[in-house]
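Researcher: Next sequence.
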Amino acid sequence: MKIFYFGSVCSNEKFNETVAGSRVKPSASAQNFETALIKGFSADSNVELTVASAESIAMYPGGNRLYLKKRKDALTERVSANIIPAFNLPWLKQTGHANGAARLLKKWLKENRDESDKRVLVYGIYPKVVKKLQKVCRKRGCGIYAVITDVPSTMFTYTKSKNLLKRLFSGSYRQLAIDLQDKFDGYVYLTEAMKDEVAPDKPYIVMETIADTTIFDGVENVKKAEPPALMYAGALYKKYGVDLIVDTFERVTMDCELWLFGSGDYEQEIVERAKNNPKIKFFGRVSREEVLLREKQATLLLNIRNSEDDYTKYSFPSKMIEYMLSGTPLVTTKLSGIPEEYYEYCYAVSDRASDKIAARIDDILADKDLEQMGERARIFVLENKNAVCQTKKITEFLEQN
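Model: Next structure:
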């Protein structure tokens, strides 16, 4: 099978360079997910993959480059990303990416015009690009499919932003994505509930997640933190339950620290609370290598969110799989987007009251089988959720549809 893939992936080296040099940081979760996806396809000798990429970087001057040059980034030994050039400014960026992606797709379709077993696979819904790609595919009679990791109706909800242009842009962007979401031939979702929100009558599979099982290769084994450390790394947004994590920690009676990594709208509140509680350690944005090392060093990794929030139906936390791969035990709230089988390999909490979660964490910290739980989780993900297993589900779905 031949697949034309459009996304935002680039080499990890270039991504790290962008993170280090930019005031507004690109999403690490998207980069990690797509990298694992590409590795999985690349490992399948029956798949010939062509990658076109609108590199993830904030508009200039938030991002560190005014012009995004055309280049090729090696992603695996078999696959490189064709990075689409564009001026990194409003309208010009989206237009450049849309025109560049359409040119690459037309060229690919021409080269493979006699190939019957070919598909176009798109990561997410980048409206201007997707509109062009859907049009080209309809005209040339080629199936186009989407990997949906975020439901468009929940994206860019800047309703409280003081920036009028940001609110207007996010609203129109979201509406364009919603208008295009049901115009694919099939879908790869993270959760079952996504189907009803995006395209109820179209073919789909639920993939949940994809694990890059190589991410801890080269990360040294370290001694566990003393005193014990609870850790969260990711987007520090109140809507993702970071306030609940801090509230919970302050009610834990066992001697331990809280490590927080990342950035977001709750960042300043964390800084203020850390001033009053020296056991709250805020590290901000650090390199991926340091985060992975700290995940191994921590005692417990936290994924605590409000299970009543609507978005949790449409979300499978990518960080959860990274946590499980670390071998450090995970504490997570029960969320509707996470299938039951995962809870056999982590500590699950059903209550959303911080004092109740804190009491549960006290019990967990006293558990003598902590290391065994972490190791069981690591093996489960390695054997069942690796990139090869998960991308095989996608190729089988594409072949059948």
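Model: Residues 187 and 348 are 30 Å apart (CA to CA). The longest strand covers residues 229-235.
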